Each structure stands twice: as structure tokens, then as C-alpha cells.
Amino acid sequence: MTHWLVLPIVLPAMLAAMLVLAARYHLVIQRVVSVAGTVALLGLAVGLFWQASDGTISLYQLGNWPAPFGIVLVADRLSTLMVLITCVLAPLVLLYAIGSGWDSRGRHFHPLFQFQLMGILGAFLTGDAFNLFVFFEVLLIASYGLMIHSGGQKRLRAGTQYVLYNLLGSTLFLFALGTLYAETGTLNMADLAVRISNLDAGNSAGIRVAAVLLLMVFAVKAAILPLHFWLPASYAEAPAPVAALFAIMTKVGAYCIIRMYTLVFPPDLELTQGLFDVWLMPAALLTLMLGMLGVLGAKRVDRMVAFSVIGSMGMLLASVAVFTQAGISAALYYAIHSTFAAAALFLLVDVIRARRGAASVSFADAPPMQGGALVAGLFFVAAIAMTGLPPLSGFVGKLLILDAARSSDLMWWVWGAILVGSLIAVVGFSRAGSVVFWKAHQARDQDIAPETPEPEPSTALAMVSIGGLLAVLIALTVAAGPVTRVLSATSAQLFNPAPYIDVVLTTPGKKIKSDYDAANQPKETGATGQGEAENHDNKAGDDAHGSTVKDN
What we know:
This protein has helices at 7-22, 27-52, 77-100, 109-125, 129-147, 153-184, 189-197, 205-222, 231-237, 240-245, 249-263, 275-297, 301-322, 325-355, 372-387, 393-404, 411-438, 460-478, 480-494, 498-506, 515-519, 527-543, and strands spanning 56-61, 72-75, 548-550.
């Protein structure tokens, strides 16, 4: 099964290239291939998640080179969980893009969509810090192309802002990687964990600098205050399917924080003491309050949803900053919930934009929209989920976070920020719902023309995709017990990194010979020597692309 580990990266890359070269002018073929590809990815994700569900850690060595010299992909409970979330989200978003006609407004939507999936899945599966940077750049390129899809001055400006902020993050990432390599001589995550744990705390200022820089990089991706400025405009102005797919993008930053600071910089590491309680927790709480105040102060529905994403990331990272098994487990549950809730809201914003005429997504008066009862019902469910009101998964996630925060010295600050922020979010979403749907019956027509005509998401396929996202939230609520047990096991595995390190560093691959060995190797190549080489190669081929270790 380990050979399947590389397919979530290779498959979208091959499909994207094929769509560009062979089906650039054939929209129907692009749609069929893209949908088939995302469905295949979902099947792969389910298989990998099932394989890792019993604690198995799988390894794939690209080029058959062993770590830390070669590039490795690692599948454990956390990485396969994030891959599964992405692969469940992708086909639902893609169906909306097809049903609403967004994919027809440019020739390269489907190739860029596949490249985006490649970057996201690669970031989750890689076991090498430098290749994490590479996949970040793949994400950046693809996301910029998707963001400016269909054109427009506002999208171009938002896309440029997005690229500039993320290029700044990429620069910091390179500085951090250079510092790590200078101090340790490796960038493999498992090897970094071993070498950093053996360093003298009094003589390792460079490692602490690298840890701080990496936290800043991941904070940019996760939109943590004060590095959040790129998100509101980028998500609000992006095409609706793109913004919905971007709901998983901030979770990439959260995933990297969890991965790096449980494996490479664990909580008990003296070198990095204070990063979470002194820096991350206050930043997360301020991000939470800023996001919810933005929800209350927004004058457009799309901006309101974008700020709710910022607030949800603050709540998620507050749970991460507790940095206990319960905190990480609660953060993962809330990550699943917030991803699908935000995606559903972005798609609903697009429906509202298309059906409100001149008023678009502003809080201006407008007549009732066509099919307003259905849209209002879907918006009501999505708003309940995002604000954390019972009985949906947002309420369960907040209870888990509040319970995990009891072990923190800042418990009352965490509780206060979450409860007050939730109240503010309820007020903001209530205002939006009352203005857009309820008050619409009292409005009169306005003679203001929309700035840019938008596609009409009127097909049943578009509404089915929104319903599918909300169905995931309902399923997450109904199955909260089994899901939390799985996430607890995931968190426990993260806090026991020894099996991860063992499978990465002890799996054999190609034999690597030094220049000295090559120069002093006997020149005769008899049958015995040749046979030994062949036997070694066969053994390497058997173990090549991986090994599995079961974490009990």
C-alpha cells in the first residue's frame, strides 16, 4: 500500500499537464477529467486514511534514496487526515464551479485547480522541510492564477497583495531553512528532530532564531495577527469556488505548526521554551477578537465571511497553543468543522451576489431574491455552524477547546475571548441574515448597476454542492464521538514521535558510497561481488518506496 502514497501528488500533476496540453479548448473534457481526478483522489485519501487508522506510519522514498539524503513522503494519522479533508472538499467545490459556470470564464481553471491540489497534498505528505517550501511555492503560483480567474481590477489588486505577502513569507522561510541547515546539516524533519534534541541549549541561538522564523512563516499562511492583512481582500474578491477551496489553505499553516512543533521542536525542548505561551497564545486570542470584530463591522457579506475565517483560525490556534494532547485534538476537530463551514458560506455568498441584483453582497436594501427561502435556509445552517451555536459541529468544537484550555495558565483569557467572540459573531451573522433575507421584503428596487456581471449559480448542481458541504457538518456533529476518538489517537501519536523518526531514518534504500570507498574498491568484479550487489539492489527495491511501522 505504500506505493499509493505518491499518487495524491503525481495524479493531479499529471492531470493538470494533460488538461493544458490536450484539452485546453475543450471545456467538457476538462470537466470530465477534473471530476474523475478528484473522485480518484478521494478514493486514494480514504485508502491512506484507513491504512493509517491503526497507527501505521508509511514511508515512500522518491528515487529510492534513504533519508536524510533523499526526499521522503510520510503518511501518519495527521497527514492522512488532512489529505482526506482536502479530498472531500475538492469534488464538492469543483461541482459548484461546474454548476455555476465559473470554470467557463477562463481556459485554465481546471489545470490550476489540479496544481493547487498537488501543492496542498504535497505539503501534508512531505517529510522534508525544504520540500515543504517547494510545495508552498506550488501553492502560491496556482492560487494566484485561480485568484485572478475571470479577471477584473479588484481581483488583480487582491491577487497582487496576496502574492507580495506570501513572497515575504517565502523569504523568511528560506532564511529559516538556511539557518537550520547551517546549524544541523540536514533538512529532513525526522533527522532534524534527532539532531536538535542533542544540541546544547546554551550554544544554539541559531536554532531558536530558526524556530521563531518558521513560526512567523506559518503564521502568514494561517493569517495570524499581525500577518493577516492579505486574507480579507483575497478571499472576498476571489471567485467563489476558489475562496471555498482556500478554506483549507489556512489549515496548511496550522498543520505545519502542529507538525514542526511536535516533531522538530517538541514542547519539552529547552531551546524553544516560551514560543507558545508567550507568543502564539496572545497572537491567537487577538486574532480571534479581530476576526469577530471584523464580522461585526463588515459592510459586505463576503468581507464578513472572510473575517470569520480569521476569527476561526484564532480560535483553532488558541487550542494549538495550549499544546496538550487534548488541545491538539480539539484543534483538529475545529479545523475540520471550520473548513467546511467557511467553504459553504463562500459559495452561498456567490449565490447571494448573483440573485440580489444591484445590491450584490452589500448590506443595502434589495427586493427578495429568487429562491430566497432555500438560500436563507442554507445560510441559516451555515451561520449556526460558523458561530458555534448548538447543535452543530461548531458548538462541539468550541466545547472541546474550552475543555482543553482548562489546563492552561491563561484559561480565563481563552474562555473570555472565545465566549465574547462567539457572541459578537452571532450578532454579526444575525444582522447579515436579517438584512439580506428578512428585510428584503420591505425593500424597493434600486437603479444601481453591478460593477461586474457575475455568473448565475442557478443550477441544481451548484445547490447540491452547498448541501453536500453542510451535510459534512451534520455528519461531523452526529459522529462527534467516533471522530473525537480518532483525533485523540492522532494527537497521541504526535506526542510520541519516536515511531515516526524510526521509520524515516531506519528504512534502507540505495547504498550510498563515499568517494573514499569508491577509490579503494577492489577492481575485480567476480561473480560473488556481482551477486552481492544484485542482492543488495533487490533488497533495496523491496524496501524502496517504503516501509511501514505500526504505532501501538
